[in-house]
Amino acid sequence: MLVYAACLPGILMIIGSCANTAPSSIETEYQHVERYMLVKRDNYEYKGGAHGMGTTLYYVFDLTDKRVLCICDFFREGTEERLYEIIKNELRGYNDRTAAQGTAVLGDDKPLSQEIFLTDEPGVTENIFISEEGMCLNWAPYEIAPYAAGSIEILLPWKTIRPLLKHDAMELLEKFGIHMFM
Fold this sequence. Notes:
Largest sheet: 4 strands, antiparallel
Number of helices: 4
Number of domains: 2
Radius of gyration: 18 Å
Mean pLDDT: 83
């Protein structure tokens, strides 16, 4: 994988060091695509108790502007409610795909908390990454579901969220080599 050597020290500083943490295992992957870099950081910590805690953090770096992108860089103001509905629908689909045989699926009419989720209002995570297919959102164990469910990761397809994107975000994605032809 090609890593821009000049950007790497700044990227590592943004991600932070692991000094003064509990015993842990950290793996970091770098993926350079066009003008952005995706950093995936898998972390496992054990602080005592029944089990340790595994989390995955994603960082999307705009190598041109030398900054970390967040979800607010992509969506127009005033689209939060529609985005939240799309996220909840994708979470329903996630539940339905992972449900054990014989388990009732959520469909559109049941609250999220009726199955694997801890809440009906999961919130929007800032833990995102982008791909050719869309924007992926990741919640760590316990954020919206019990530990046994693991990390929850959903894909918001570009074709679904395109009407909510800022014009600047579409230009940014184009610069990254992600083209949205409709």
